[in-house]
Specification:
The structure holds two protein chains of two kinds.
Chain A lengths: L7 H9 L3 E12 L2 E12 L3 E5 L6 H9 L8 E4 L2 E2 L10 E4 L11 H5 L10 H14 L15 H13 L5 E5 L7 H18 L2 E6 L2 H7 L2 E6 L2 E6 L1 H6 L4 H6 L4 E4 L1 E5 L3 E6 L3 E6 L3 E2 L9 E4 L5 E3 L8 E12 L3 E8 L12 E6 L12 E6 L5 E3 L1
Parallel strand pairs in A: 3-8, 3-9, 6-7, 7-8, 15-22
Antiparallel strand pairs in A: 1-2, 1-4, 4-5, 9-10, 11-16, 12-13, 13-14, 16-22, 17-21, 18-19, 18-21, 19-20
Helix pairs in contact in A: 4-5
Chain B lengths: L3 H25 L16 H8 L1 H34 L5 H9 L6 H14 L6 H25 L3 H9 L4 H29 L3 H6 L6 H8 L6 H33 L9
């Protein structure tokens, strides 16, 4: 089997134009009094690697199981490849699932596990055996067929679960936290392998995860869910750079927040005043209208979107002086908490901002208490109003 | 030396438990008609006498029929109860499971008398069928407990995975769940079989004119002449139990080896 080598960007451009594979419209799900899904609307395109990301209890697994056909739901429609799935049971849907526990049948061999779904397949025994061997080869387990399934390691079980699902050539592969049981090294390796595998087979993957890093690494698009609702749906870069709510911003990575006073609407954005940063014009693309909450408008920026500089540098960025409050050394990175001069001017509350600096050769780690200059640019600020 | 007393206690305990059973085969092969030392000589005549005794054969046949039927019924019903209690939530689940377990603590004599009164009042003829009914009732708690443990240890997504891979609810159960709970089913069958085989009170009340092994042995104890034959019968039963337990343990270990689960104790 050949691996079509294509860049992530090309893959995303292609899938963005592809036909819808999964369409979910207004789906609600109740468990007794508990409202697990509160009106989910979602379109996943053919060939996409799509992730449902959220904290535990946000409904992401319920949504995945709804697509698989394991959950009944109250209202709404689920279409897979244009077909209404109402009344179609899980065993007749064009989806297959990789379970969190892998659900490898312990009393069967690896080959029997992988070939389990072929029982009703009319092909001959030899053809099925060839298909099983091909599926095992695809997940890197060539020659493991005769082994007992219970003797496999966690990573190998995962691969068997993948082969067992993919051998049926489903239109959609559903993955329920497939990497959560693996150790860190193995997890990172499997992330890369899963992306490769997905590009190779061209099947739509829907992944459920609570690990934001995993979602960012693997997905073409991510739906962030809280309390049974989709909070934001976007590509990884957009989601990270331009979260539309403080909650999403906080869930994905770290974001600094400073209160903001809105001064004027301008042609290209909004002019605000931020303690410590002064007057800034936020570009229209970086303005979120949602979820300012009780705290009023605020601006946010990522720790790595700003940097510590020795003196004011010429160019687009602006420089604000401050005092280093805290230093956390991580080896490759150092995190500084810096109290910007004048940052308490609104209400007297000190709000240190976190700044991430890569420890490149020749750059010394700064000490607590020293004065520092923080370089930032208006384009890296996001306004939540 | 510390722990010496405990050693002595443990040995005495084991002697008290097993010495009488060891005496069974000794007297079964003793040619004397009195159950006392010194032994006289070696003979197999008690075994011959036992096999030639028609009413003993009848009792044995009845007991085996009852034990096999009761263990199969109790295990089948136990599978239903265990599956329902581990897989589904339904109103009244707690009380229902409690009622299934109740015969475990009810005095058997009460169960027997109530069954007898009910069966007689609705005009049922007492025979081995009524004993099977009673034995199924008292074996159910054991079967349900053993099978619930087996069903509980299963990952729920195994069944969903099979269903997801195109099987029906029934074939998913047959292909995945049944093989994995098989050790539990065999345990339950053997446990019920053993309980039924030596059960006396229910058999005594509900068998009508049909003898079972325990009631037959009890009736023969009045005749000292018959006691060496009873010893031979006892020897046979002990031998049979050992064989059964060995088979059960073999299947249990094979089941564990097959699924790669951890061995958490068994019969042997």
């Amino acid at each position: 089997m050949t691996t079509p080598s294509s860049s992530t960007a090309a893959h995303r451009a292609r899938t963005a134009a592809a036909r819808p594979m999964i369409e979910i419209k207004g789906v609600h799900k109740h468990y007794g009094d508990y409202h697990a899904l509160r009106g989910i609307d979602l379109t996943i395109r053919a060939g996409e690697f799509f992730s449902l990301l959220g904290p535990s209890g946000c409904g992401k697994t319920t949504l995945l199981r709804t697509i698989a056909g394991f959950e009944d739901f109250a209202d709404g429609v689920v279409l897979i490849d244009g077909q209404d799935m109402d009344g179609v049971a899980a065993n007749s849907r064009p989806t297959n699932m990789v379970f969190q526990s892998y659900a490898i049948f312990p009393h069967l061999s690896v080959a029997e596990n992988v070939g389990f779904g072929l029982r009703r397949d009319p092909r001959s025994k030899a053809e099925k055996a060839a298909a099983i061997e091909e599926a095992l080869e695809m997940v890197g387990l060539k020659g493991y067929g005769k082994r007992a399934a219970h003797a496999l390691s966690g990573g190998q079980r995962q691969r068997v679960a993948l082969a067992r699902a993919l051998i049926l050539k489903p239109k959609v592969l559903l993955l329920d936290e497939p990497l959560s049981a693996l150790d860190r090294k193995m997890r990172e390796q499997m992330q890369v392998e899963l992306i490769k595998l997905q590009r190779q087979v061209g099947i739509t993957f829907v992944l459920v995860t609570h690990d934001q890093e995993e979602a960012l690494v693997m997905s073409d698009r991510i739906a962030v869910m809280f309390e049974g609702q989709i909070a934001q749906m976007d590509g990884p870069e957009a989601l990270y750079a331009r979260p539309t709510s403080r909650r999403v911003a906080n869930f994905i990575g770290v974001m600094n927040f400073l209160p903001a006073r809105i001064l004027a609407e301008t042609a290209s954005g909004v002019e605000v005043e931020v303690p410590g940063l002064g007057r800034v014009e936020i570009p229209a693309a970086n303005i979120s209208q949602k979820d300012a909450g009780d705290e009023g408008p605020s601006v946010g920026f990522r720790p790595e979107a700003v940097s510590l500089v020795s003196a004011s540098q010429p160019g687009q960025s602006r420089v604000t002086p401050g005092v280093i409050d805290e230093v956390v050394y991580y080896g490759d990175m150092t995190y500084y908490d810096v109290r910007l001069d004048g940052s308490a001017s609104f209400d007297g509350k000190a709000r240190p901002v976190r700044i991430a600096m890569r420890n490149v050769f020749g750059r010394d780690v700064q000490d607590v208490g020293t004065r520092a200059n923080v370089s930032w640019s208006p384009g890296s600020l996001v306004l939540f109003r | 030396m510390k722990g010496r007393g405990l050693h002595v206690y443990a040995i005495c305990y084991l002697l008290f438990l097993y010495a009488p059973i060891l005496l069974l085969p000794i007297f079964a092969f003793n040619s004397g008609t009195v159950i006392a030392f010194p032994l006289k000589g070696v003979t197999t005549q008690w075994f011959v006498q036992m096999f030639e005794n028609a009413s003993m054969r009848k009792a044995l046949f009845n007991s085996l029929t009852i034990a096999i039927s009761a263990s199969v019924f109790a295990t089948c019903l136990g599978v239903f109860a265990a599956r329902a209690s581990t897989r589904f939530e339904f109103p009244g689940k707690g009380p229902i499971m409690g009622l299934i377990m109740l015969p475990l603590v009810l005095p058997e004599i009460i169960v027997s008398i109530s069954l007898l009164v009910v069966l007689l009042s609705i005009g049922v003829q007492l025979n081995i069928l009524t004993v099977i009914l009673g034995h199924t009732l008292i074996c159910m708690p054991y079967a349900t407990v053993i099978l619930s443990t087996a069903f509980n240890s299963l990952d729920r997504s195994l069944e969903e995975a099979a269903y997801d891979l195109g099987e029906t609810r029934w074939s998913a159960f047959r292909l995945v769940i049944l093989p994995l709970v098989m050790p539990g089913i065999i345990s339950s069958l053997l446990m019920s079989f053993t309980i039924s085989l030596d059960e006396f009170i229910i058999a005594f009340f509900l068998a009508g004119n049909e003898p079972t092994l325990p009631t037959y042995i009890f009736s023969q104890l009045r005749f000292p002449k018959q006691i060496p034959m009873i010893m031979a019968l006892g020897t046979m039963l002990v031998l049979m139990s050992i064989i059964l337990l060995t088979i059960a343990e073999y299947f249990r270990r094979r089941g564990i080896a097959k699924t790669g689960a951890k061995d958490t104790g068994g019969f042997l």
